[in-house]
Amino acid sequence: MQANRVSPDQRLRALEKMAEIVCPSCAKANESTPCRRCGCDLSSLFAIDRAAGIELAAAAKCLRTGKAADARNHAARSWQLRHTLMAARLAFLACVALADSAAARYWCCRACGP
Ligand SMILES: [Zn+2]
């Protein structure tokens, strides 16, 4: 019997999935807009998070298909939208694949976390 296997498409959908957004007004974590505590409109923050997830999924797909330069660009755009360890890690792996050690060092510092 096989363990639960996750298909590449399922992984991509997981990367695109929105994260919780912390309300900038009251600091409540929310899974949807408006904020459940103060009613603040969080739609723009969710849109940015969704765009970051789409860029992240594109980076992963490019890396898997050998398009390292495209993967690095998508991962960097994802990072610009939302700083996630996954974006830094994908950018790092893309730089390693491109043999760009200076950029790999830059992303390694971000991929290892604070
Ligand atoms: Zn709030």
Explain this structure.
The chain is mainly alpha-helical and 114 residues long. It has one domain. The chain has 5 helices and 2 strands. The chain has helices at residues 8-16, 43-64, 68-81, 85-97, 101-111; strands at residues 21-22, 29-30. A two-stranded antiparallel ribbon has the order 1-2. The mean pLDDT is 89. The chain binds zinc ion. Residues 23, 25-26, 28, 35, 37-38, 40 line the site of zinc ion.
The proportion of residues forming helix, as a percent range, comes to 55-70%
- Gyration radius, rounded: 16 Å
Overall SS class:
mainly alpha
Q: Which strand order do you get reading across the main beta sheet?
A: 1-2
Quick one: overall form? globular
- Uncertain runs are none
Largest sheet: 2 strands, antiparallel
* Total number of domains: 1
Number of helices: 5
The number of strands is: 2
Terminus-to-terminus distance: 40 Å
